[in-house]
Amino acid sequence: MSRARTPTGLAAVDPQGVELPHGCEVTLRRSVAFADAQLPMGTVGRVTGHPQPGRVQVTVVGRGALILPREDIVPRTDGQLRHAVDRARAEAALGPCVLARATVGSRAWGLSDASSDHDTRGVLLWPFPWASARGRVPDVVVSADGSHTLWEVGRTIEQALRADPNTLEMLFVPERDTVDPLADILFDAREAFVSKRIYGSFGRYAVAQTKKLRQSLRLARHRTDVLTWLQHNPSSSLDHVAARLAEEAVTVGGTPTKDEVLRAKQYLKQLYRSMFDQGLLAACSFEALADFARADASGLDLPRELRPKNAYNLLRIVSCAVQWLRTGVPLIAAQGELRDRLLAIKRGDVDLETALRWTDTVAQDLDDAREHSVLPEHPDFARADTVLLQLREEAARRWLERVPGPWGTQAAAVLTGSDVD
């Protein structure tokens, strides 16, 4: 006999009453007129904005974005509903437990304009029962629109020790909103989390992503060639086209390696999946791509992921890595020539290849910066443990002494993964 869901499960949840987070897959509850078409009930889309209360921006692949009343959409699956419920509950329970938050992104880098998003990241501290709970409890809270993120202090420290760029940026942004003085314990110790690991997490990461973008760009520029090959030889197999693509696009006339052929094959699969999602192909298959090539092999723009703006952050973080390794001082707000170049990329004034070349030039100094770095080889794990213990002890004290506030008398009941089973 199946176990009935408890009142805290999905059976007690009104799908219309849940705030749908950015990225949630939804379906239309009624037919909707859009442009010159009619989107039927059941059409699948993805939440991509919250323009105003009671209205949600939904993007339908191959159609575009439309603004709908909240009551016109529901989560596509129970899994999507569960995720929305978990997020809302975590935000309500842990939102008051924030220690500090900082504005990040282009506003912190000195590169914002009137259209720039206002993104923040911050740190929260579990109340004592949460840190002691059996089962998994939320250690990250993200706002419904995806622009505000809070990490629990334990997760924050672990990410900082790994030299995670997003975490270290949040810790070193010059200005922050301190909600509770406990935050000073963490921020006063932030230098202890910094080490030469920045070389890998910032620098080598940017180099690897630059290489992938350049390869994808070369492959994308050969997309017209691929369609032309299939137009003339529609019976060509996926393996045959991948080998030819690897030879001409990856190795530029040399003999491709097995890995290069595999990457070319993966690109071809990504190509027909993307074109299917855009409504250009009748099916998500290589055969459908060949059919498309026979009918119309022209008029396609570069994929969105290959816009120059996607190289913007790579140039910034590799520049930050070089400076931080050499001087021990993080680069948050961009200045001088770097700022000019970043703004040029952001505006779309330069092509992707130019942006990648700028990143390559800065990356040439990475190894030397690491070799002569003023940073320690490893972070100070002992200091990190001390900080975490101090914060946990203070949360416990406030709970046990019933101190007013979110860690004491107003602490929310513990939520674990089992609460929504």
Describe this structure in words.
With about 425 residues, the chain is of the alpha+beta class. The chain folds into 4 domains: about 10-75, SH3 type barrels, CATH 2.30.30.40; about 85-195 and about 380-420, no CATH class; about 200-210 and about 310-370, no CATH class; about 220-305. Helix content is about 45%, strand content about 15%. It has 16 helices and 12 strands. It has helices spanning about 80-95, 105-110, 130, 155-160, 165-170, 185, 200-220, 225-230, 240-250, 260-275, 285-295, 310-325, 335-345, 350-365, 365-370, 380-400, and strands at about 25-30, 30-35, 35-40, 45-50, 55-60, 65-70, 75, 100-105, 120-125, 140, 150, 175-180. It has a 5-stranded antiparallel sheet with strand order 6-5-4-1-7. A 5-stranded mixed sheet has the order 10-11-9-8-12. It has a two-stranded antiparallel sheet with strand order 2-3. Helix 7 packs across helix 9 (about 240-250), helix 8 (about 225-230) packs across helix 11 and helix 12 (about 310-325) packs antiparallel against helix 13.
Estimate what percentage of residues fall within beta strands. 5-15%
Number of helices: 16
Largest sheet: 5 strands, antiparallel
Mean pLDDT: 88
Topology:
Elements: E1 25-28, E2 32-34, E3 37-39, E4 44-52, E5 55-60, E6 64-69, E7 73-75, H1 78-94, E8 98-104, H2 106-109, E9 119-124, H3 128-131, E10 140-142, E11 148-152, H4 153-161, H5 165-172, E12 177-178, H6 183-187, H7 198-221, H8 223-232, H9 238-250, H10 258-277, H11 286-295, H12 312-327, H13 336-347, H14 352-363, H15 366-371, H16 381-400
Parallel strand pairs: 9-11
Antiparallel strand pairs: 1-4, 1-7, 2-3, 4-5, 5-6, 8-9, 8-12, 10-11
Helix pairs in contact: 4-16, 7-9, 7-12, 7-14, 8-11, 9-10, 12-13, 12-14
